Amino acid sequence: MELILFLLSVFIISFTGAMMPGPVTAVVLANAKRTPYAGLIVAAGHAVVEIPLILFLAVYAANFMENALVYMIVAFAGAAMLVYLGAEMILKAGRDPDLKKESRGAFIGGIITSINPYFILWWATTGLVLILQAKRFGTWALIFFIAAHLSVDVIWDGALGWLAHRSGIFRHRKAQKAIYILLGASLLLVAVYFAVTGVRAIPEIR
User: Fold this and answer.
1) Which burial class, exposed, middle or buried, applies to 33 when counting CB atoms under 10 A from its CB (0-12, 13-18, 19+)?
2) d(CA 54, CA 58)
Protein backbone atom coordinates (compact mmCIF):
# COMPACT_ATOMS: atom_id res chain seq x y z
CA MET A 1 0.00 0.00 0.00
CA GLU A 2 2.84 2.35 0.89
CA LEU A 3 4.52 1.62 -2.45
CA ILE A 4 1.28 2.43 -4.29
CA LEU A 5 1.00 5.75 -2.45
CA PHE A 6 4.62 6.50 -3.33
CA LEU A 7 4.08 5.78 -7.03
CA LEU A 8 0.94 7.92 -6.93
CA SER A 9 2.97 10.81 -5.52
CA VAL A 10 5.56 10.26 -8.27
CA PHE A 11 2.81 10.44 -10.88
CA ILE A 12 1.35 13.65 -9.41
CA ILE A 13 4.71 15.40 -9.03
CA SER A 14 5.83 14.34 -12.51
CA PHE A 15 2.51 15.40 -14.01
CA THR A 16 2.70 18.89 -12.54
CA GLY A 17 6.24 19.23 -13.86
CA ALA A 18 5.23 18.06 -17.33
CA MET A 19 2.26 20.43 -17.43
CA MET A 20 4.31 23.46 -16.41
CA PRO A 21 4.38 25.87 -19.40
CA GLY A 22 7.98 25.99 -20.54
CA PRO A 23 10.46 25.02 -23.29
CA VAL A 24 9.30 21.38 -23.55
CA THR A 25 5.66 22.43 -23.92
CA ALA A 26 6.67 25.05 -26.46
CA VAL A 27 8.58 22.48 -28.55
CA VAL A 28 5.55 20.18 -28.58
CA LEU A 29 3.18 22.95 -29.68
CA ALA A 30 5.62 24.34 -32.25
CA ASN A 31 5.96 20.93 -33.92
CA ALA A 32 2.35 19.81 -33.52
CA LYS A 33 1.31 21.66 -36.66
CA ARG A 34 3.46 19.18 -38.63
CA THR A 35 2.43 15.94 -36.96
CA PRO A 36 -0.03 14.82 -34.26
CA TYR A 37 2.75 12.66 -32.82
CA ALA A 38 5.02 15.61 -31.96
CA GLY A 39 4.43 15.09 -28.25
CA LEU A 40 5.45 11.44 -28.35
CA ILE A 41 8.60 12.30 -30.29
CA VAL A 42 9.52 15.03 -27.80
CA ALA A 43 8.88 12.61 -24.91
CA ALA A 44 11.26 10.11 -26.54
CA GLY A 45 13.98 12.77 -26.78
CA HIS A 46 13.33 13.69 -23.15
CA ALA A 47 13.67 10.04 -22.10
CA VAL A 48 17.08 9.77 -23.79
CA VAL A 49 18.36 12.29 -21.24
CA GLU A 50 16.33 11.26 -18.20
CA ILE A 51 16.88 7.48 -18.09
CA PRO A 52 20.71 7.66 -17.87
CA LEU A 53 20.41 10.54 -15.38
CA ILE A 54 18.04 8.60 -13.11
CA LEU A 55 20.30 5.54 -13.16
CA PHE A 56 23.36 7.67 -12.41
CA LEU A 57 21.66 9.35 -9.46
CA ALA A 58 20.36 6.01 -8.18
CA VAL A 59 23.83 4.41 -8.24
CA TYR A 60 26.02 7.29 -7.09
CA ALA A 61 24.24 10.34 -5.72
CA ALA A 62 21.57 8.37 -3.82
CA ASN A 63 24.30 6.53 -1.87
CA PHE A 64 25.62 9.90 -0.72
CA MET A 65 22.07 10.70 0.41
CA GLU A 66 22.16 7.88 2.99
CA ASN A 67 23.72 10.46 5.30
CA ALA A 68 20.87 11.82 7.44
CA LEU A 69 22.17 15.40 7.35
CA VAL A 70 22.46 15.38 3.57
CA TYR A 71 19.00 13.83 3.25
CA MET A 72 17.51 16.50 5.52
CA ILE A 73 19.08 19.31 3.51
CA VAL A 74 17.96 17.90 0.15
CA ALA A 75 14.47 17.13 1.51
CA PHE A 76 14.05 20.74 2.63
CA ALA A 77 15.49 21.97 -0.69
CA GLY A 78 13.05 19.70 -2.54
CA ALA A 79 10.17 21.06 -0.46
CA ALA A 80 11.23 24.63 -1.29
CA MET A 81 11.48 23.71 -4.98
CA LEU A 82 7.96 22.27 -4.94
CA VAL A 83 6.58 25.33 -3.17
CA TYR A 84 8.12 27.51 -5.87
CA LEU A 85 6.85 25.30 -8.71
CA GLY A 86 3.40 24.98 -7.17
CA ALA A 87 3.06 28.73 -6.72
CA GLU A 88 4.40 29.41 -10.23
CA MET A 89 2.00 26.87 -11.73
CA ILE A 90 -0.95 28.55 -10.03
CA LEU A 91 0.19 32.02 -11.11
CA LYS A 92 0.86 30.95 -14.71
CA ALA A 93 -2.37 28.97 -15.07
CA GLY A 94 -3.93 29.64 -18.46
CA ARG A 95 -0.90 31.34 -20.02
CA ASP A 96 0.51 30.23 -23.36
CA PRO A 97 4.24 29.46 -23.83
CA ASP A 98 6.29 31.37 -26.40
CA LEU A 99 6.52 29.26 -29.56
CA LYS A 100 8.76 31.51 -31.64
CA LYS A 101 12.05 30.12 -30.32
CA GLU A 102 10.98 26.48 -30.23
CA SER A 103 10.51 25.51 -33.87
CA ARG A 104 13.43 23.01 -33.82
CA GLY A 105 12.86 19.34 -34.60
CA ALA A 106 10.70 17.49 -32.07
CA PHE A 107 13.20 14.76 -31.07
CA ILE A 108 16.23 17.07 -30.88
CA GLY A 109 14.06 19.65 -29.17
CA GLY A 110 13.10 17.08 -26.54
CA ILE A 111 16.79 16.45 -25.82
CA ILE A 112 17.93 20.08 -25.84
CA THR A 113 15.09 21.42 -23.71
CA SER A 114 15.84 18.74 -21.10
CA ILE A 115 19.16 20.43 -20.36
CA ASN A 116 18.17 23.63 -18.59
CA PRO A 117 18.58 25.12 -15.08
CA TYR A 118 15.05 24.13 -14.01
CA PHE A 119 15.59 20.52 -15.12
CA ILE A 120 18.92 20.23 -13.28
CA LEU A 121 17.56 21.87 -10.11
CA TRP A 122 14.48 19.62 -10.11
CA TRP A 123 16.54 16.44 -10.31
CA ALA A 124 19.07 17.72 -7.76
CA THR A 125 16.31 18.25 -5.21
CA THR A 126 12.84 16.79 -5.80
CA GLY A 127 13.94 14.04 -8.18
CA LEU A 128 16.78 12.94 -5.90
CA VAL A 129 14.45 12.56 -2.92
CA LEU A 130 12.05 10.46 -5.00
CA ILE A 131 14.90 8.25 -6.22
CA LEU A 132 16.10 7.67 -2.66
CA GLN A 133 12.58 6.77 -1.54
CA ALA A 134 12.27 4.36 -4.48
CA LYS A 135 15.55 2.66 -3.53
CA ARG A 136 14.24 2.04 -0.03
CA PHE A 137 11.44 -0.04 -1.56
CA GLY A 138 13.90 -2.05 -3.66
CA THR A 139 15.11 -2.39 -7.25
CA TRP A 140 11.66 -3.06 -8.67
CA ALA A 141 10.36 0.14 -7.10
CA LEU A 142 13.10 2.07 -8.91
CA ILE A 143 12.00 0.48 -12.20
CA PHE A 144 8.37 1.35 -11.44
CA PHE A 145 9.50 4.89 -10.59
CA ILE A 146 11.20 5.30 -13.97
CA ALA A 147 8.16 3.87 -15.76
CA ALA A 148 5.73 6.08 -13.83
CA HIS A 149 7.80 9.22 -14.39
CA LEU A 150 8.32 8.65 -18.12
CA SER A 151 4.70 7.60 -18.67
CA VAL A 152 3.64 11.08 -17.60
CA ASP A 153 5.70 12.66 -20.39
CA VAL A 154 4.19 10.24 -22.89
CA ILE A 155 0.64 10.86 -21.69
CA TRP A 156 0.81 14.64 -21.34
CA ASP A 157 3.08 15.52 -24.27
CA GLY A 158 1.29 12.99 -26.48
CA ALA A 159 -2.15 14.38 -25.63
CA LEU A 160 -0.91 17.97 -25.93
CA GLY A 161 0.57 17.34 -29.37
CA TRP A 162 -2.53 15.55 -30.63
CA LEU A 163 -4.93 18.22 -29.36
CA ALA A 164 -2.75 21.04 -30.69
CA HIS A 165 -2.57 19.35 -34.10
CA ARG A 166 -6.34 18.88 -34.22
CA SER A 167 -7.43 22.28 -32.93
CA GLY A 168 -4.32 24.48 -32.94
CA ILE A 169 -5.07 25.62 -29.40
CA PHE A 170 -6.56 24.44 -26.13
CA ARG A 171 -10.31 24.87 -26.46
CA HIS A 172 -11.48 24.80 -22.85
CA ARG A 173 -9.21 27.45 -21.35
CA LYS A 174 -11.15 27.74 -18.07
CA ALA A 175 -10.92 23.99 -17.50
CA GLN A 176 -7.20 24.09 -18.30
CA LYS A 177 -6.68 26.89 -15.80
CA ALA A 178 -8.61 24.99 -13.11
CA ILE A 179 -6.46 21.87 -13.69
CA TYR A 180 -3.25 23.90 -13.40
CA ILE A 181 -4.41 25.45 -10.13
CA LEU A 182 -5.45 22.06 -8.74
CA LEU A 183 -2.13 20.45 -9.62
CA GLY A 184 -0.23 23.47 -8.30
CA ALA A 185 -2.04 23.06 -4.98
CA SER A 186 -1.14 19.35 -5.05
CA LEU A 187 2.53 20.28 -5.35
CA LEU A 188 2.23 22.46 -2.26
CA LEU A 189 0.80 19.50 -0.32
CA VAL A 190 3.64 17.22 -1.46
CA ALA A 191 6.08 19.97 -0.41
CA VAL A 192 4.70 19.63 3.11
CA TYR A 193 5.35 15.87 2.96
CA PHE A 194 8.94 16.46 1.83
CA ALA A 195 9.46 18.93 4.68
CA VAL A 196 8.10 16.36 7.17
CA THR A 197 10.55 13.70 5.91
CA GLY A 198 13.34 16.24 6.39
CA VAL A 199 12.23 16.87 9.98
CA ARG A 200 12.08 13.13 10.66
CA ALA A 201 15.72 12.80 9.56
CA ILE A 202 16.92 15.28 12.21
CA PRO A 203 17.07 12.74 15.10
CA GLU A 204 19.25 10.47 12.93
CA ILE A 205 21.92 13.15 12.40
CA ARG A 206 25.17 12.29 14.15
Assistant:
1) middle
2) 6
pTM: 0.65
Contact 12, 155 (CB under 8 A): no
- Number of domains forming the structure of the chain: 1
Angstrom CA distances, 183 to 2, 11, 17, 66, 154, stand at 22, 11, 9, 30, 18
Q: Which domain holds residue 47?
A: 2-204
How would you write the pLDDT of the chain (206 residues) with one tens digit per residue? 678 888 888 888 887 777 766 667 767 776 777 788 888 888 888 888 889 988 888 887 766 666 777 777 777 877 787 787 678 767 766 665 554 444 445 666 556 656 655 676 678 778 888 888 888 788 888 899 999 999 998 998 888 888 877 765 545 667 667 766 776 777 687 778 778 877 887 887 76
Closest CA to 145 of 2, 3, 7: 7
State the sign of the Cα–Cα–Cα–Cα dihedral 115, 120, 122, 128.
positive
